[in-house]
Amino acid sequence: MVADMGICRVSAKDRLRAYAELMRLDRPVGIALLLWPTWMALWLATRGFPGWTMLAIFTVGTVLMRSAGCVINDYADRDIDGKVWRTQNRPLAEKRVKPVEALVLAAVLSLLSAALLVFLPPLSWVVAVAAVVCSALYPWTKRFLPVPQAFLGITFSLGILMAWAAVTKSLPWTAWGFWGANIAWVLAYDTAYAMADRPDDQALGIHSSALWLGRWDVTAVYVCTGIFLLGVAGVALVQGVRPVFWLGWSAAVIWLLVCNWQLHTRNPELCLKVFRQHHWAGALLWLALLIGF
Questions:
Q1: Which residues contact 288 (CB under 8 A, 6 or more apart)?
Q2: What distance in Å separates the CA atoms of residue 110 and residue 106, rounded to the nearest whole number?
Q3: Which of 41, 48, 99, 165 satisfies CB 3.0 to 4.6 Å to 124 for a cystine?
Q4: Crossing angle of helices 148-156 and 29-46, rounded to 10°
Q5: Distance between the two ends of the chain, CA-based, in angstroms?
Q6: Which of 171, 40, 168, 65 is nearest to 116 (CA)?
Q7: Which DSSP string do the residues of 11-68 spell out, in sequence order?
Q8: How far apart are CA 185 and CA 190, in angstroms?
C-alpha cells in the first residue's frame, strides 16, 4: 500500500512537471521578453513608478498569458513538434499530456488572467480581448503567413497598449509608437530564433521570417533592432526622460550589437543563444527608464 501511494505521488509530480514544461515555466526567457516592454510602458506612461498594484497586476498577467499562449502553441503544433530536433521532447509531442488537458489548462490560465481585468479600466479590457484572440490565432499563422513573426510581434506587444491604457485611460500616439517599436524588436529576436529552425521549417512546409528573408535575415535583424532602439529613444524623449537615461540606452545598443554579430555564423545553437540574450537589452532599457524618471 505504501508502494502504491509512492507511485501516485510520483505520478502526480510528473504530471505537474509536464504542465510546467507545457507552460514553459522552465524557460522563463519568454516571460522576460514580454515583461520588460510591459514594465517599460508602465514607466513611460506614468513618467515614473506606476505603483505596486499596477506592477503586480501586469507582472502576474504577463506570466499567465504567456503560459496560456505557450500551451495553445504546443496544442496547435502537437503533430509537428515531434519531427523537430528542438521541440521533440515537449509534453504534447511525447504524449505526456493529453490534448484535452492542454485545452483545459489554457482555458484556466486565460480565465485567471481575465480576472485581473476587474482592477483595470474598460479600455484595457478591449485591448485584452484583442490579445486573447491574437494569442489563439498565432500558432496557426505559421501555416499560411509568409512572416508569422510579424503577427507574433503584434500579439506580444499588446501588453504595452494594455499597460498604457491602464494608467492613463487613453492610447496616445506615444503608446502606439512604442507598440510599433516593440513589434520590430520581436521581429528581430524571433527571426534569430527562426534561423535555428530553418532546415526543419523548410522540410515541414512551415513559414518563417528566416525562410522568407533568405540571405537578408541577419541584415533584417540589425534593421529591426535599430528601429526598436530608436523608437524607445524617441518615446522616452517625448515623455521627458532625464539625460542619465542615455547611459542605459547606450549599454543596450552595445549589448544588442554584440549579440547580433553572432548571427553571421548562422549556427543554430548560436542563433538560439542570441534569442535568449536579447532579453537583457530589455532589462537595460527598463533600468534606464527607472533611473531616467
A1: 236, 244, 245, 246, 247, 248, 249, 251, 252
A2: 6
A3: 165
A4: 50
A5: 62
A6: 65
A7: HHHHHHHHHHHHTTTT-THHHHHHHHHHHHHHHHHHTS---HHHHHHHHHHHHHHHHH
A8: 8
pLDDT of residue 80: 87
Q: Which cell numbers hold the place of 77? A: 503544433
In one-letter notation, the amino acid at residue 206 is: I
- pTM for the model stands at 0.93
The grid coordinates listed for 69 are 499562449
Q: Looking up cell 483595470, which residue turns up?
A: 120
Question: For the chain, what percentages of helix, strand and coil (3-state, to nearest 5) are there?
Answer: 80, 0, 20
Tell me the average pLDDT across 181-205. Answer: 94
Which residue type sits at 170? S
Residue identified by cell 504567456 is: 66
Q: What is the DSSP-derived secondary structure letter of residue 91? A: T
For the chain, what is the domain count? 1
What is the residue range of 283's domain? Answer: 2-292
Report pLDDT for 84.
81
Residue 18, domain CATH: 1.10.357.140
